[in-house]
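User: I'm preparing a small set of examples for a lab meeting where we compare how different chains pack in three dimensions. I only have the primary sequence for this one, and I'd like the structure in token form so I can line it up with the others. Please keep the answer compact; I'll paste it straight into my notes.
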Amino acid sequence: MRNKVENTFDILEERGFVEQVTDLDMLREQLKKPTTCYIGFDPTARSLHVGSLLPIMSLAHMQRSGHKPIALVGGGTAMVGDPSGKTEMRRIMTREEISENAEGIKKQLSRFIDFSGERAVMLNNADWLVGLNYIDFLRDIGRHFSVNRMLTAESYKARLKTGLNFIEFNYMLLQAYDFWYLFKHFDCRVQMGGSDQWGNIIAGADLTRRLNGEIVHGLTFPLITTSSGVKMGKTHKGAIWLDPELTSPYDYYQFWINQEDGDIGKFLGFFTFLPMDEVRRLAGLEGSDIRHAKEVLAFEATRLCHGDDEAEKAKNAARQLFGGDRAEMSESVPTTQIESKKIENGIPAYILFEETGLCATRSDARRLISQGGGYINNSTVTSYDQIIGPADVVNGSILLRAGKKRYVRAVIQ
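Assistant: Understood. Below is the structure token output for the 413-residue chain.
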């Protein structure tokens, strides 16, 4: 941890975190001294995914520079549903579901942020939103909002085409109230969030100015896309979760090492704490050397999320697979079990690929194998109905591969 307060705005800007700010000079001045900042996290799932990593890393940078982060779980606002970036209304959750999810989120955040000794705090906005008197809220807070201005916000404009209900229309007021509440009770001066939160952040800053005559600040992050234009974090398996039970450390490591060459420098700046001189050096590697930069990214990202031991296991497993060392294969490689009877009787390759989860459907498996992308023990499967039997078992297992990078070890039971 750094002991002195640095101008974190310059750190974030150099690493590519900054999309919009309320006032650049005023925010930089604010961050010359210890400042409390916050980001809201949506507790609609029991785990965060890599789409939340940029906000998490920004809070970690703030703390490492001497500031105090607040991680705000939206237990109250989740009962309403944020329309930002959504084409339809979210499912309304129960308080029990939200509380259970919040516990999982705090455990994940603790990998990146130190909550000991009140160096950071985690709050739930249900603590102050649920008990609000609706009439008082409309009179004291709602009167400061212009409906005409609210309708110009991107989060509302997009939803007007598909339908925006009244409960969602209240969301901006509630998030603005959060910012004011955290300013009043925790002297929170900065709110950060994704670019789709810009309108909500501005509303909170404006409400605080109207109620207390004080200036608070906002900063948003860019939407992360890969070089091919795909939203970062989506794979053939769906979201990449921070919970190891939902996405194994090995699969997490593989997600990072499989990123496109042109994105490695950007992602090293976003998702590691490596000095920027080292980031630029790694980003400048070319040809086969870019594999080393990818390994650094994958190891550092996995270490932050899952710890040193799991990162080492994932790295070793990946090297063993690519090196073809079956005897030393790590237990970190994704593993599934297959009944010995199926192998003894012989099983068509496309069915085995589907049953082990390497392909989502048998049709996908047939297509993969027909295109030459299916492998058994690093040998190409010649036809989708090739029979896999006892002769293919090595050290009690069969190694299946889809394409160049997706492996499953089928253990015979």
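A couple of notes for your slides: The chain has three domains: 8-221, 234-323, 335-412. The first helix runs from residue 8 to 14.

User: Perfect, thanks.
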